[in-house]
From TrEMBL:
Belongs to the class I-like SAM-binding methyltransferase superfamily. RNA M5U methyltransferase family. The keyword Kinase does not apply. Residues 1-21 are annotated as: Disordered. InterPro entries: MeTrfase_TrmA_AS, MeTrfase_TrmA_CS, NA-bd_OB-fold, SAM-dependent_MTases_sf, TRAM_dom, U5_MeTrfase_fam. Residues 7-65 form the TRAM domain. This is 23S rRNA (Uracil(1939)-C(5))-methyltransferase RlmD. GO terms for molecular function: methyltransferase activity. The lineage of its organism: Bacteria, Bacillati, Bacillota, Bacilli, Bacillales.
Length: 464
């Protein structure tokens, strides 16, 4: 039967009640039974909105008036909140943001997983939910003599300049400002993405919060870097804590920020930071959690759920630079990590050495290929930890995990929808979870991180 025609037209003004928050943070409501997404509207509000786009099963509308205001509505602290695409929830009071994130997980488990019986615990938030990011990455643009660096406006490549980003550690903002001023003075040509010409594409800054070591990465369109000597000398003078100054070359027409090749312009190839008691070396390409305070909160939850006694064999799948496995290593007999980016695996090995951890090893490869092989080779871990990207775990990996028959499988997830899907898959194979602990790694954005532990329902091994 053909679907009825959408009851709204682009340009139409409608009023509707907002009943929920989408996974991107938009308000969601129904108008004549038809789903409408309204950015900046809050669940519980009655709003008037102008329809902007209509699809077969839903529409988007721009908020024009809040008729009934949510008690959780607050004035966003950041002056460019409405234009910048970085944060989505600054207009919602922090406790309500946390509850809205919890609801998302509740919905995913009920709707996608069909797992209403799983308890979703209150989100562990930050006491001070600002200035948390240890990494800033800004595009460079504008014309000759008018270099600009800032954020892309939501859904576009228009650069919005800024001086202070409130979720960023102030040191990073200061460093970005210093780099910006100096490249302006030297008139380093910014990259023009339409013409694919010019030099400087992005500036990336990372700070180790425990070490105060600073890395600056200048991403250029090719190997040339005009005024290189002066640039280096000026940044050494101006950027406090500068430890590593890197040129990264990204010659392709792409949205991917970093290219393959990095050159040290001055200083070290890496900076260091700590998570808890473990030291890590971080290179430009390394995935390193951006909220160091909450990373410890998250990893402590992983530690609690893994409940190690020093006897266990632990697999850390999707291990990045080895962070979780190394964090747990002193309570394990052996740690095996797998990760698809070879550079990250090298970092993981180096990090094991840096911490004098000899019983952890790391293998490069895709987890869905390596884990089945480990299962065939007879590796029998007591605990498996997975921390996949947004798309979740491949079925091959979950099948291999079940075949290995661990006592516990700890799942760290950045996407409740794929976590719920995988939870349903694991349940069919005899591994169930009772509770999910969300942790707010990214206050004021719509991202939700979760950790949960699956346990075998039977005592016996089971082949699938
Ligand atoms: N556990 C780490 C990293 C988690 S991010 C931490 O807490 O820091 C997810 C990681 O999975 C990334 O490092 C990414 O490179 C890796 N990855 C993505 N797909 C993969 C796959 N199919 N097999 C193995 N690793 C993969």
């Amino acid at each position: 039967m053909p679907k009825p025609k959408p009851p709204v037209q682009p340009g139409e003004r409608i009023t509707l009640p907002i009943t929920g928050q989408s996974h991107t943070g938009d308000g969601v409501g129904k108008y004549k039974g038809f789903t409408v997404f309204v950015p900046l509207a809050i669940a519980g509000e009655q709003v008037a909105a102008r329809v902007s786009r209509v699809k077969k099963t839903y529409a988007h509308a721009r908020l024009e008036e809040v008729i009934q205001v949510s008690p959780h509505r607050v004035d966003p602290l950041c002056p460019v909140f409405a234009q910048c695409g970085g944060c989505q929830l600054q207009h919602i009071a922090y406790p309500a943001q946390l509850e809205s994130k919890r609801r998302q997980v509740v919905d995913a488990f009920a709707r996608i997983g069909g797992l209403e019986e799983v308890t979703i615990l209150p989100v562990l938030g930050m006491e001070e939910p600002w200035s948390y990011r240890n990494k800033a990455q800004v595009p460079v643009g504008g014309g000759k003599g008018k270099v600009e660096a800032g954020f892309y406006a939501a859904g576009s490549h228009q650069i919005i300049p800024f001086d202070r980003c409130l979720i960023q550690q102030p040191e990073n903002d200061r460093t970005i400002q210093q780099v910006k001023e100096w490249i302006r003075e030297l008139d380093i040509p910014p990259y023009d993405e339409k013409k694919h010409r010019g030099c400087l594409r992005h500036v990336m800054v990372r700070t180790g919060i425990h070490t105060q070591e600073v890395m600056v990465v200048l991403v250029t369109n090719g190997p040339e870097l005009p005024h290189r000597k002066q640039l280096v000398a000026g940044l050494r003078e101006r950027v406090p804590g500068l430890t590593s100054l890197i040129q990264n070359i990204q010659p392709h027409r792409t949205n991917v920020v970093l290219g393959k090749e990095s050159r040290v312009l001055w200083g070290e190839p890496v900076i260091h930071d700590r998570i808890g008691h473990v030291r890590f070396a971080i290179s430009p390409h390394s995935f390193f959690q951006v909220n160091p305070v909450q990373t410890e909160v998250l990893y402590e939850q992983v530690r609690r759920m893994a409940a190690l006694t020093g006897e266990e064999i632990v697999i850390d799948a999707y291990c990045g630079i080895g962070t979780i496995g190394l964090y747990l290593a002193k309570e394990a007999a052996r740690v095996l990590g797998v990760e698809s980016i070879p550079q990250a695996v090298e970092d993981a090995r180096h990090n094991a050495e840096l911490n004098g951890i000899a019983h952890a090893s790391f293998e490069a490869g895709s987890a869905e290929e390596v884990m089945p092989r480990w299962a065939r080779e007879g590796i029998r871990p007591d605990v498996i930890i997975v921390d996949p990207p947004r798309k979740g775990c491949a079925p091959e990996l979950l099948d291999a995990a079940v075949r290995m028959s661990p006592d516990r499988l700890v799942y760290v997830s950045c996407n409740p929808a794929t976590l719920a899907r995988d939870a349903a898959y694991l349940k069919e194979r005899g591994y169930t979870n009772r509770q999910v602990q969300p942790v707010d790694m990214f206050p004021h954005t719509s991202h939700v991180e979760c950790v949960t532990v699956f346990r075998r329902e039977w005592g016996e091994n089971r082949e699938v």
